[in-house]
Amino acid sequence: MGGRADIGGRADIAALVTEFYRRAFADPRLGHVFVDVARLDLPAHLPVICDFWQAVIFRAGTYRRNAFGVHADLHSRVPLTPELFARWLELWTTTVDELHSGPHADRAKLQAHRIAASMGRRLAEAPTAPGTPAPASTRAATATVATAVTTAVTAPGRHRRPSEPG
Ligand code: HEM
């Protein structure tokens, strides 16, 4: 036990997501999507991301937007492949683990996996460019990853909440 504290509230979430996006922007595979495709204005976006994670981790009613729609739009410009999702999850998991430990940290990781699986499944059916279906290979691979991830993280007694896309 490394003495890491659990995620305690909004301030911890802000520090956590700041560190996660620092890594994601610098990542050889993911950085391109944030920097070149979305041209994400991170300081402007962080409050929204914090609202999202506060809703997910603490079941707070802080997030009412459509996160899936944001990623479907993104996916129409650059395919969000199973490899990208896997990398995203890897970065999220290691960042959470390095900073925190406890039930809220576990929930942050579990829900990220569930949401990523759900997004991946739905994106596999979404167009990658206006009017063009995703290549069959991408669809099949995404479905496989989504199934694997769902199977790995599905715990009894959990239900999707309104704040979670999917
Ligand atoms: C391949 C994986 C992913 C990539 C490349 C990615 C990238 C992005 C980008 C570029 C944005 C900003 C889009 C814009 O406003 O123009 C965004 C927003 C967001 N992402 Fe992701 N994302 C990924 C997976 C996920 C996952 C798995 C989650 C949740 C567990 C997530 C949660 C969010 C949220 C909450 C927002 C803000 C949506 C809003 O504006 O309300 N993302 N993502």
From TrEMBL:
Transmembrane segments: none annotated. It comes from the Bacteria. This is Hemoglobin. GO terms for molecular function: heme binding; oxygen binding. CDD domains: TrHb3_P.
